[in-house]
Specification:
The complex is a heterodimer of chains A (329) and B (279). Helix content of chain A is 27%, strand content 21%. Chain A has 329 residues and is of the alpha+beta class. Chain A has two domains: 162 residues, no CATH class; 133 residues, no CATH class. An eight-stranded mixed beta sheet of chain A has the order 3-2-6-7-8-9-1-10. Chain A has a four-stranded antiparallel beta sheet with strand order 5-4-12-11, with no helix packed on it. The radius of gyration of chain A is 21 Å and the shape is globular. Chain B has five helices and 15 strands. In chain B, strand 3 and strand 4 form a beta hairpin. Chain B has two domains: 89 residues, Translation factors (Elongation Factor Tu (Ef-tu), domain 3, Beta Barrel), CATH 2.40.30.10; 168 residues, Nucleotide-binding domain of ferredoxin-NADP reductase (FNR) module (Rossmann fold), CATH 3.40.50. The chains are: A alpha+beta (329), B alpha/beta (279). Chains A and B meet through strand 4, strand 5, strand 11, strand 12 and helix 9 of A and strand 14 of B. Bound molecules: flavin-adenine dinucleotide (FAD) and iron/sulfur cluster (2 copies). One iron/sulfur cluster binds next to helix 10 of chain A.
Chain lengths: 329, 279
């Protein structure tokens, strides 16, 4: 893959060039001081050395709440027809790119999801290399994630820019004057031991039924759901209908749900298939590390570290793997 | 099998008749305005939309007919089912599906077939019963064991007795307890459903059982079925879970690593017996 050099002082113009293709979004700081993906007005808004946003970019593909059908007495149920604005999502780290690759497998696989596809097609991904910290353990076996359209790697005084997809090449075409050819070979890093371990566990289907950790997790979990909200690959959703009081119109929408909530396994009549936290952790574990359905055997954790950062009571499911005798940290 | 997309537009359907079966359960006969996109297999479910209420999974209680009619036997439980119970004949609802796998009707051919229904579990098994009665010569024998809490809530009783009288079906009914008002109920055992299996002996490999009922029913009938000679592979259990999308996306209904909505809702006992929490 050809890599071009983009000097720091041309980044502003480079971003202007990208925004010809859609609304530019990237890592920015809110007025409340939270690092989020959001609209970028000027180059100075961008956090080029951010660690991780609170909410991952899944919010662009699966908004927290999304209308799926409208209802009126006259027309019955109809599909909403809102055009999706084109978005250039700048500064996505490799872990989050892998998170999107996993969601693509779920929502564009054998049961394609129309709403997801529409949003996915309207988004261009510009990846950015990152500096890992003590919380994350992402896989760096592919140094340039294949699902980025463009990928930027931090190097001294600038970035190495690669076009990964034809969409990426098309965007670079008009930006050639800002780029110089480059012979710099970027550093590659080995797979983190924790990720190697997670992959082994997923292959072997281990469930650690006798680990004392389950009880310890269950005893202190607050069921706040933060670990799922912030996970780039948690996508469970509920479907609800909001009817007008007179029953003549309604909106059916899907909304992020959470497997650590009590109602997640509850059916009518009060039966709950996962009434206690321990069972809910098992469920989360099964889905996150071993996979359900056609994705059985495919681990969903991409090592972004968000759940370890946000959990108010320091629950870290990966302790199951270290407990098992493999020191990974 | 190709299930519709989870956000597909429901097929409009009119409520033709509503027959109140018990205080909280009614049989809704619907007329669909379009054909279902695929052939219905008993044990599959549809997603029923009650406008301005929401969508819920329901197993049709009969075989959807050529003229587009379909029967749903629904108990009033909560939000959506209560709204459904407030509808009138002529009102419009919506249907998507069918979803899920359904009972393996081909695997039942040539066998002694035992249907075990507890409470509302009779709904999907009535659909399977209708299918098997239509192809009665394909199976060696056909027995329905149906248990209800008390005589007043036994569903489809007269219809079932009529079918049994034709001789093509062996019918065994039981109630958990008798109430004072119906001490004189005929043809009815008193005791939990598994008591009907006491002493039954079937030929291993040439018998099968389809079970549907409230969660505790599975745990208490399986041992009796195995003892009666039905092999693990031939015990089909229709499981209930919370489900929203019907196509394995919303992730509420996993049983081990299977999805109840698309890998099930009917599972062979052998495939799920080692999964913690499956039964
Ligand atoms: C495969 C399958 C077949 C079924 N067949 C029948 C049938 O033939 N007759 C019948 O009366 N009932 C049947 N049920 C149960 C029926 O789906 C629930 O009674 C219904 O969803 C309750 O909705 P509600 O809004 O009235 O209850 P609430 O308690 O108000 O439920 C709120 C929401 O939770 C969800 N929910 C609650 N219970 C369930 C559940 N068991 N499964 C999935 N989602 C649930 C629904 O989306 C519902 O809108 C079946 C369930 C499944 C999974
Ligand atoms: S499980 Fe935790 S570390 Fe893994 S992807 Fe989700 S939030 Fe990131
Ligand atoms: S963030 Fe921690 S406390 Fe909150 S639900 Fe997750 S594990 Fe439990």
């Amino acid at each position: 893959m050809v890599r071009h050099f983009l000097p720091d002082n041309s980044l502003g113009q480079f971003l202007d060039g990208l925004s010809l293709f859609g609304a530019l979004h990237g890592p920015v700081r809110t007025t409340e001081g939270v690092e989020v993906f959001g609209p970028v007005r000027t180059e100075s808004d961008l956090l080029l050395n951010y660690r991780r946003t609170l909410i991952p970019p899944k919010k662009y593909l699966l908004p927290p709440r999304q209308t799926i059908l409208n209802y009126t007495v006259a027309a019955g149920y109809t599909l909403p027809d809102e055009p999706e604005p084109h978005i250039i999502l700048f500064g996505v780290h490799p872990c989050d790119l892998q998170g999107i690759a996993y969601l693509d497998r779920v929502f564009l696989g054998d049961r394609p999801d129309r709403l997801y596809r529409r949003r996915r097609e309207a988004i261009t991904l510009v990846g950015l290399s990152c500096e890992p910290d003590e919380f994350c353990f992402c896989t760096s076996d592919e140094n340039i994630p294949r699902n980025a359209d463009l990928f930027l790697q931090h190097v001294e005084h600038g970035f190495l820019v690669s076009a990964v997809t034809s969409k990426g090449e098309e965007m670079l075409d008009g930006l050639g004057k800002l780029l110089a050819s480059s012979r710099i070979t970027p550093q590659t890093s080995a797979e983190h031991r924790m990720m190697t371990r997670i992959r082994e566990v997923a292959r072997s289907g281990k469930t650690f039924p006798d680990s004392p950790l389950w009880e310890r997790f269950a005893a202190r979990c607050l069921s706040c759901g933060a670990c799922s909200v912030c996970c780039p690959t948690c996508y469970c959703f509920d479907v609800l209908e909001n009817g007008a009081l007179d029953g003549t119109t309604a909106d059916r929408f899907r909304e992020w749900d959470n497997c650590l909530f009590r109602a997640h396994g509850e059916v009518a009549g009060g039966t709950n298939f996962r009434p206690d936290r321990r069972e809910r952790f098992h469920y989360r574990y099964l889905h996150k590390y071993l996979g359900f359905g056609t994705l059985a055997g495919v681990p969903a954790c991409v090592g972004c570290g968000r759940c370890r950062v946000v959990c108010p009571v320091d629950i870290d499911l990966t302790e199951l793997f270290t407990e098992d005798g493999d020191a990974c940290s | 099998m190709h299930a519709p997309e989870f956000d597909s537009v429901p097929i409009p359907a009119r409520i033709q008749t509503i027959q109140q079966l018990t205080a909280d359960t009614a049989l809704f006969r619907l007329k669909l305005e379009e054909k279902l996109p695929s052939v219905f297999i008993p044990g599959q479910f549809i997603q029923l939309s009650v406008p301005a209420g929401g969508e819920i999974p329901i197993s049709p209680a009969d075989l959807p007919a050529e003229d587009g009619t379909m029967e749903l036997c629904v108990r009033r439980f909560g939000h959506v089912t209560s709204l459904l119970h407030r509808t009138k004949e002529g009102d419009q609802v919506g249907i998507r599906g069918p979803f899920g796998n359904g009972f393996p009707v081909d695997a039942m051919s040539g066998k002694d077939v035992l249907l075990l229904a507890g409470g509302l579990g009779i709904a999907p098994l009535r659909s399977l019963l209708f299918h098997l009665l239509r192809h009665r010569s394909d199976v060696r024998s056909l027995t329905l064991m149906y248990g209800a809490r008390e005589p007043a809530v036994m569903l489809f009783k007269n219809e079932l007795l009529d079918l049994a009288n034709t001789g093509s079906l062996r019918l065994l009914l039981t109630v958990d307890f008798l109430t004072e008002t119906c001490q004189t109920e005929p043809a009815c055992n008193v005791g939990l459903l598994p008591t009907l299996l006491k002493g039954v002996q079937l030929e291993p490999g040439h018998s099968c059982a389809a079970v549907c009922g409230p969660p505790p029913l599975y745990r208490c009938t399986i041992d009796e079925l195995l003892r009666a000679g039905v092999v693990e592979d031939n015990i089909y259990l229709s499981l209930e879970r919370r489900m929203k999308c019907g196509v394995g996306l919303c992730c509420h209904c996993a049983v081990g690593q299977y999805f109840c909505c698309c890998d099930g809702p009917v599972f062979r006992y052998r495939d799920i017996k080692d999964i913690p929490g499956a039964l």
